[in-house]
Design goal:
The protein has 5 helices and 2 strands. A two-stranded antiparallel sheet has the order 1-2. By secondary structure, the chain is mainly alpha-helical.
């Protein structure tokens, strides 16, 4: 049963597979959708726990400005930034102990340092 109105679909299930025109329509479809969606029945606390890396988790959810053809690079950086284990590794500076500054073919750790700096700006606004 839907509202049968033509509206912009702006409300989604947490699974992002189903969109509704408003919270009322979402609530009406909940019983049907819950039987098919593993995420639909989660409580707000469960949703928050899955999204929360720590108190700074909202900081990492941000966009990067595209300059020319950088959209592909930016989407890759966003994927890496939201890989929690990798982001923790850089936020806690654990990568610094593994930088090889002696390799003549390498970049002396500059790429890792710049990525660490970017991650801190995205997550800590430093």
């Amino acid at each position: 049963e839907g509202c049968n109105m033509v509206k912009v679909l702006k409300v989604s299930c947490i699974c992002k597979d189903v969109y509704y025109c408003d919270e009322n329509c979402k609530e009406k479809d909940k019983k049907y959708h819950m039987s098919r969606c593993k995420k639909a029945g989660e409580s707000d606390d469960e949703k928050a726990n899955k999204l929360e890396m720590n108190h700074r988790s909202v900081k990492g959810i941000c966009g990067l400005r595209n300059i020319g053809n950088t959209c592909y690079m930016n989407s890759g950086l966003q994927c890496l930034s939201n890989t929690i284990e990798l982001t923790d590794y850089f936020l806690q500076d654990k990568y610094k102990a593994e930088i090889n500054t002696e390799n003549v073919l390498g970049l002396k750790g500059e790429l890792a340092k710049m990525y660490g700096s970017l991650i801190k700006k995205l997550w800590w606004d430093v």
